[in-house]
Amino acid sequence: MKKYFLMVAMAALILGGCTLPTKQQPAEPQQPTAPVIVEPGTPETSGQPPVETVPQPPKVQTINWSASVQPMVAKMLQADGVQAGSVLLLDSVKNSTNGSLPVSKATAALHDALATNNKFQVVPDSQLATAKQSLGLSVDDSLGSRSKAIGLARYVNAQYVLYSTVTGEVKAPMLKMQLMTVPSGEIVWSGNGAVQH
């Protein structure tokens, strides 16, 4: 029985990692060390890594919205069945490409292209903003759907809506435009063309 007890105690000590206490020696007092003085010297260029050149960012392609929009607006103004003097609601251009495009500039180019036409009276931005607020829409709402655009056009008593979308690859986008009558939603003219860079 004593042997068994000693073996268990020995095994417990070994497994527990216990060691027998040893006599500790008193620590020696540390001697103060003198500060190290570093003197400036000439830098070594051989130990420095080579200077890396920063790669040039990709060139941002500028889009000539005016050149993209003008020919299509000219064709639209020649379309048959459009009554001169009609009120036109110009919907914001939508971006349906696979990237980001400054479509607000496209909308501004459409406004500029239609500013001097003698066929349509374009609904002013201030009237459009007031109408959107009256209908509970955000002033920045791009209307998103044809039905929403036609509903807003009815509210401002417009006879036509110009719905425009930029589609395709962002590096080579296409501009699609549709002129619709407000009462029926019928498309009376449509056109598309490549966006000019």
User: What CATH architecture label of the domain at 65-194 applies?
Assistant: 3-Layer(aba) Sandwich
The count of DSSP E runs of length 2 or more, i.e. the number of strands, is: 6
CATH C-level class of the domain at 65-194:
Alpha Beta
Name of the CATH superfamily of the domain at 65-194:
ABC-type transport auxiliary lipoprotein component
The helix content, as a percent range, equals 25-40%
- Kindly report the CATH topology of the domain at 65-194: Rossmann fold
Query: If you compute it from the alpha carbons, what radius of gyration comes out, rounded to the nearest whole angstrom?
Result: 39 Å
Segments where pLDDT lies below 50 for 5+ residues?
A: none
Structural class of the secondary structure composition?
Answer: alpha/beta
Number of helices: 5
State the end-to-end distance: 98 Å
Subcellular location: Cell outer membrane
GO biological process, one term: regulation of cell shape
Function: Regulator of peptidoglycan synthesis that is essential for the function of penicillin-binding protein 1B (PBP1b).
Keywords: Cell outer membrane, Cell shape, Lipoprotein, Membrane, Palmitate, Peptidoglycan synthesis, Signal
